[in-house]
Structures are given as C-alpha cells and as structure tokens.
Amino acid sequence: MFNLNLGNLTPEQFLTEYWQKKPHIFRQGFKNFEDPISPDELAGLASDEMVESRLVWQKDDQWNAAFGPFESYDHLGEKDWSLIVQAVDYWAPEAAAMIEPFRFIPNWRLDDLMVSFASEGGSVGPHIDHYDVFICQGSGKRHWRVGDRGDLKEYAAHEALLHVEPFEAIIDEILQPGDILYIPPGFPHEGIGLEPSMSFSVGFRTNSATDMMSGLADFMIDKELGKQLIEDPDRDISVTPGVINDRDLARITQHLQTVIGNKKIMTHFAGCYFTTAKHELDIEIPEPLFKTNDTINAISDQPLSRLGGLRCSYFEESVDDGIFYINGEQYNLSASLSAAIKLLCNQQQIELSDISDWTDNDEFMNFITRMINEGYWYF
Ligand code: SIN
Ligand code: CO
Q1: What's the whole-model pTM score?
Q2: Above 90 in pLDDT, residue 206?
Q3: Which ligand is nearest to the CA of 188?
Q4: Which is the closest atom of ligand 1 to the Cα of 124?
Q5: What is the 79 CA–ligand 2 centroid distance (Å)?
Q6: Of the N and C termini of the chain, which has fewer Cβ atoms inside 10 Å?
Q7: CA of 53 to the centre of ligand 2 (A)
Q8: pLDDT digit string, tens, across residues 87-121
Q9: Which pLDDT score is estimated for 31?
C-alpha cells in the first residue's frame, strides 16, 4: 500500500494551487519507497511483444530510439540509455497499486503508469508532454530540470523523438527515492540518470477536440446515429450563389449542435469513449468458468480485484437508473443496484463486507460472476 504525502498540502489545496498550473516537487511523497518492480522485471515486460516499450540512447552526440520488444541491452554499455515501458499498471498489480493514492483525480482522466529505467546519463531528452504527470523517483537518483510554459520550438532529434529547444529551468533538482515531481502539460522538462535509476510516472491524459470529435464520429457510425440530413424548406433566393451566408452557416452549426447538445448521446458516447482501454488488457479467462456460488465462496476468502487498466465510470445523473460503463461498453442493471454500481466503479478491490447488502441479490451476483468470467475482475 502506497501512502501519498503531499507535505503541508491537502489534495484540495494541491488541485487549487498546482494541478494544471505549475510543477512542484513533493519531497518524500512516498516515504520509505521501494520499487514495486525491479529493473530486471521491467526488462522482462519489455521482452513481451504485447507490451509497449521504447529504448532511447545517445551515441556520439546522436539521439537514437527503438521500439520493443527487446531481448538484450548488452550492446548499450553502462551509460547514456534509458528503457521506457508504457502501461505497466496493465501487467503488474504491485506497480498498479501506485495509482491508488492519486484517485482523488477521477478514473476518466487517468492515462497509465509508465516506468523507466535509466543508466547513468540515460534520458529521453528535453521534451514537452501533453499530459499531467506525477514522476515518482524509485531507486537511484535523477537530475530533473523543468522550464516554464512558453513558446518553445520543438524538433525531431530522431524520427521517434520530439525534443524541445534549450530552456531556462524553474526547477533544477535531484530527485531521491520517494520524491515526486508533478509536471502539468506544456512545461518543458528533462530527467537525466545520475546512476542506474527507476522512475514511475502516473500520467493523466487530456483530450483534444479533434480526438473527441473523431471518437464521436466513430461512435455515431457504430450506433447508426445522426443520419438526419440538414433541411432548408425556408430557403431565400440567392443572388450570389458563391456565398454560404450567415443564415446557412447557422443552420449547419445548429445541425451539428443537435448532436453535441443531446445529453443522452453525449453521456453514452463519453461513457464509452473514456472507459476504453488505451492498451491491450491482460485478460485471463478463468478455467473452469465461475458459477455465482463460486463467486460468493471465493469473495469470503479473498478480495476481488479489478483488472489493471480496466476503466469503469458512471454519470451522477444516470447511475440512479442503473447505467454505467466498463471498457467502452454501456451496462444497465436495476436502478435499485446503483450503490453497488458506484462501488464497482469507485473501488479497485472489493471485499465481502463491501457487498454484504447484495450477496443475496441474484442480479448483482450474476453480474459480478459474468465480469469475472470475462476476466475483468479476478481473485
Ligand atoms: C522518463 O521517465 O525517463 C521520462 C519521463 C518523462 O519525462 O516524461
Ligand atoms: Co516527459
């Protein structure tokens, strides 16, 4: 279990003063921190083709990058390289536990846990990210520089590495095991290993209108929505046929707004879109499949865990109708189960005492059993 120590700040104060506004170092944010996975285990993950990994190294002042899987690192020598593994929370529950203290930010904003190993001098280079990140220093030390937001030029230091021009540091510090550096989107930064070191980055994504519009279009096509055509039975005569006049532009905009302004469509879309996993889930179907009684017996002995990376959310308005979303799908249980649905979406682990009100409820227990059989929850 990881306990987050924000120094003299409460999570509310952190959100008001720093979140999306300015970077900050929380010294000993995790006291007595020990790496939840070792460099060797990280290398093991990076050898799996299902796992997204990257190597970045410098040789003769040239930046290089390659995508995994990787079998060996011997050719890289002792210095100036770094291994980055994405979505480690999908594969390693011990590491996924590091996300839990950050749940004061809701599930839909979470991206993933990225873990990196850097040798002495190892770095991915100076760059800008478009997400919020808590970089938790594991074993070893890294030197971090963070600059202010500004109009900095980005350039490709290698075809797979977008770097940023030199910047003046507003933070220039060495992180020790357990220290946490929070960086909002848009702040240039660079971390360089001072010795072999691990770092664990809990990232929170933001979405552009382009991403969401494209997701909305896919959703509408999939659900066969929005097929109504623009109508204009009230058309005026046009003496300048080349013009799309203000009235017509308003008509076009209004036609699109009937979709964006439709709360039912938007909740259904946002529920599916924001619960879709970004990476492949590590799904294991139990064998033999569970029966409802097996679930009750098993949860009496041990907690039920949600699969790493699985996203679950509900809306305040529709959860009371029993509607919620898991991994890009809408589910609907009886309205009387809304408290149970909130529990499933809010908690990573469920114990018998959490569900004691519903162990006799067939609908709920059958649903949980179905989720176990789909590999979404596991013992
Ligand atoms: C790293 O962990 O090496 C890079 C993290 C980052 O700068 O985003
Ligand atoms: Co970064």
Answers
A1: 0.94
A2: no
A3: 2
A4: 3
A5: 20
A6: N
A7: 15
A8: 999 999 999 999 999 999 999 999 999 999 999 99
A9: 96
Which ligand has the minimum distance to the alpha carbon of residue 84?
1
What residues does the ion ligand 2 have nearby, CB within 5 Å? 129
Predicted confidence (pLDDT) per residue in 257-290, tens digit? 999 999 999 999 999 999 999 899 999 999 999 9
Q: Residue 368 Cα, ligand 2 centroid: separation in angstroms?
A: 38
Ligand whose nearest atom lies closest to the CA of 162: 2
Give pLDDT tens digits for 318-338: 999 999 999 999 999 999 999
- The answer on pLDDT for 41 being more than 90 is yes
49-94: per-residue pLDDT in tens? 999 999 999 999 899 999 999 999 999 999 999 999 999 999 999 9
Q: Ligand 1, closest atom to CA 122? A: 3
Region 28-53: mean pLDDT is: 97
127, 135, 142, best to mutate for ligand 1 pocket (most atoms within 8 Å of CB): 135
Distance, in Å, from the CA atom of 200 to the CA atom of 203, rounded to the nearest integer, reads 9
When pLDDT is averaged across residues 225-242 and rounded to a whole number, the result is: 95
Mean pLDDT in residue range 214-240? 96
* Contact residues of ligand 1, CB 6 A cut-off: 82, 84, 116, 118, 124, 129, 133, 135, 189, 191, 199, 201
Q: Kindly list the distances between the CA atom of residue 59 and the CA atoms of 119, 171, 309, 359, in Å, as whole numbers in the listed order.
A: 14, 27, 35, 61
How does the average pLDDT of the chain come out, rounded? 96
The rounded distance, in Å, linking the Cα atoms of 111 and 87 is 8
